[in-house]
């Protein structure tokens, strides 16, 4: 029950702080762009849009969310509540995953992507992957500048190989890279689906463990009193 | 309720908290007094289970702090010095959200808001609250899940005299309800009024620990100050315990020339300065 309350709280937080409004505006812009593009470009353009925004924006939104929580000191109260570190992480992942999938579908449908379910799975895994990355970065920083200097290199490492993969450099070894698997799924490719999902799951488990360690440290540093 | 035995901890290789020992009984208000950086914050982190790498014992409700599981926090309420609230949520929404993290039966939110005079402002965003209103909301947030142990950090900081008086009355009422309260403060008047016992912490050590009354009586000495006319108004002073030795006072009393006479005791602040060599206020 607590996890449900946490997720509801996170969604309400994101709504009140205008994240949903920003997403609505971006989605409208993306859909408009899809419609003005030639038919042959739409599917690939939609894949890049979904990968770079609803899926990967988790890294930036999570940075903003955790920085806001740090600045309002609410992490102090969460640190001395019954909330477990895993519940905190899961709530953040699920709340952003929900909005990512909704926006992803909104962009995929007008683009005419052939395999909607693979695209949805890709968006969901992508959102979880980048949210965990965002949590790891956000747990270790205390300012927006610090966040940007840490997050941008991660974005470059996460983005370049998938874009290369999408534009034809589709060596099988590229599919070890989580970003390549995610963009492959988002663009509707369901070949070797279970193998790819197994690799992604391994990435997510590894990232979850790292995030758990850093978030726990963050709570220990946040709790107590600054006297 | 709380037993701390031979507790030591440091963030670095240099010694910080050293050989700390004290006990807090159920239903007691126990105060930590000390300057910034004295170790009060670190001690609180240990007692609330956030720091687990200490040496010695820190037992809260029969459980070693380092072994707390998350359910233990159902019984702990912490009121931080600075508000820890979602600014864009209303006062009520904040209470509802933080309350939803506990599985215990919550206290009535309306009654709590009424108690600290925030009932009429419950639907305002916290960002529109004054500093004092945020402090009061933060305080009832710590009471919401009806914890057995309350950690209060500067609970009257930023409050006007009336609100401060109300807050102290609520704290005393919570004590009557059986809560154990750990109070961290710089305010000696609050400590003397609220605490059953206080510990002076300086440089990671407890320098003194007793009831405020005993500390004042054991370290200080009550004095008598008197004024009289001798051409102009003059002042005399002697220790209360040596009144009979003050010839001048006796002479003034016999000749009815005393204009005023007052006894005075040292304050807890004076004792803190005497024991630790530091000034808090």
Question: Summed up, what is this model?
Answer:
The complex is a heterodimer of chains A (227) and B (281). With 227 residues, chain A is mainly α.
Q: Summarize the largest interface: chains and residue counts.
A: A-B, 30 and 38 residues
> In the CATH classification, which architecture of the largest domain in chain B applies?
3-Layer(aba) Sandwich
How many DSSP H or I helices of chain A?
10
Overall form of chain A: globular
Give a structural overview.
The complex is a heterodimer of chains A (about 230) and B (about 280). Chain A has helices at about 1-15, 20-35, 40-55, 60-70, 75-80, 85-110, 115-140, 145-165, 180-185, 195-220. Chain A has about 230 residues and is an all-alpha fold. Chain A has one domain (about 1-220). The longest helix of chain A has 30 residues, at about 195-220. Chain A is globular, with a radius of gyration of 18 Å. The model of chain A is unreliable at about 225 (pLDDT under 50). In chain B, strands 6-7-8-3-9-10 form a six-stranded mixed sheet. A four-stranded antiparallel sheet of chain B has the order 2-1-4-5, covered by helices on one side. A three-stranded antiparallel sheet of chain B has the order 12-11-13, with helices on one face. In chain B, helix 7 (about 210-220) crosses helix 9. Chain B is about 30% helix and about 30% strand. Chain B is globular. Chain B is α/β, with parallel strands linked by helices. The mean pLDDT of chain B is about 90. Chain B folds into two domains: about 1-215, 3-Layer(aba) Sandwich (Rossmann fold); about 220-265, no CATH class. In chain B, strand 9 and strand 10 (about 205-210) form a beta hairpin.
């Amino acid at each position: 029950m607590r996890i449900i309350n946490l997720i509801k709280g996170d969604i309400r937080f994101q709504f009140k702080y205008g994240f949903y409004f920003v997403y609505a505006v971006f989605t409208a812009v993306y859909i408009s762009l899809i419609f003005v593009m030639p038919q042959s470009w739409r599917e690939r353009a939609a894949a890049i849009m979904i990968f770079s925004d609803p899926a990967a924006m988790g890294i930036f939104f999570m940075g903003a969310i955790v920085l806001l929580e740090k600045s309002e000191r609410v992490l102090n109260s969460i640190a001395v509540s019954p909330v477990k570190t895993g519940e905190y992480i899961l709530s953040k992942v699920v709340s952003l995953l929900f909005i990512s999938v909704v926006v992803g579908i909104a962009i995929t449908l007008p683009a005419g992507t052939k395999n909607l379910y693979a695209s949805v799975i890709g968006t969901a895994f992508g959102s979880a992957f980048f949210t965990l990355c965002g949590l790891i970065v956000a747990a270790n920083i205390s300012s927006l500048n610090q966040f940007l200097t840490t997050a941008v290199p991660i974005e470059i490492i996460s983005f370049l190989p998938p874009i290369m993969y999408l534009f034809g450099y589709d060596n099988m070894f590229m599919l070890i890279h989580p970003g390549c698997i995610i963009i492959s799924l988002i663009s509707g490719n369901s070949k070797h689906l279970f193998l790819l999902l197994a690799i992604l799951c391994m990435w997510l488990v590894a990232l979850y463990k790292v995030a758990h360690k850093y978030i726990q440290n963050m709570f220990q540093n946040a709790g107590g009193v600054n006297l | 309720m709380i037993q701390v035995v031979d507790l030591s901890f440091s963030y670095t290789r240099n010694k910080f908290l050293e050989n700390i020992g004290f006990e807090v009984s159920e239903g007691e208000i126990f105060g930590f007094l000390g300057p910034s950086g004295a170790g009060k914050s670190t001690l609180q982190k240990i007692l609330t289970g956030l720091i687990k790498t200490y040496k010695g014992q820190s037992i809260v409700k029969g459980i070693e702090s380092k072994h707390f599981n998350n359910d233990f926090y159902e019984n702990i309420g912490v009121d931080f010095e600075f508000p820890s609230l979602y600014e864009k949520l209303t006062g009520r929404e904040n209470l509802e959200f933080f309350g939803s993290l506990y599985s215990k039966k919550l206290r009535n939110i309306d009654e709590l808001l009424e108690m600290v005079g925030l009932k009429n402002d419950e639907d305002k965003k916290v960002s529109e609250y004054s500093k004092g209103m945020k402090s009061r909301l933060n305080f009832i947030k710590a009471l919401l899940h009806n914890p057995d142990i309350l950690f209060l950090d500067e609970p009257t900081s930023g409050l006007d005299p009336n609100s401060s008086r109300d807050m102290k009355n609520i704290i005393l009422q919570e004590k009557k309800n059986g809560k154990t309260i750990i109070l961290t403060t710089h305010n000696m008047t609050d400590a003397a009024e609220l605490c059953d016992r206080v510990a002076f912490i300086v440089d990671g050590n407890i320098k003194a620990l007793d009831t405020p009354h005993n500390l004042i009586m054991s370290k200080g000495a009550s004095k008598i100050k008197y004024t009289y006319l001798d051409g102009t108004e003059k002042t005399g002073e002697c220790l209360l315990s040596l009144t009979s030795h003050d010839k001048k006072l006796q002479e003034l009393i016999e000749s009815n020339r005393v204009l005023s006479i007052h006894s005075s005791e040292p304050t807890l602040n004076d004792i803190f300065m005497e024991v630790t060599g530091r000034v808090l206020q």
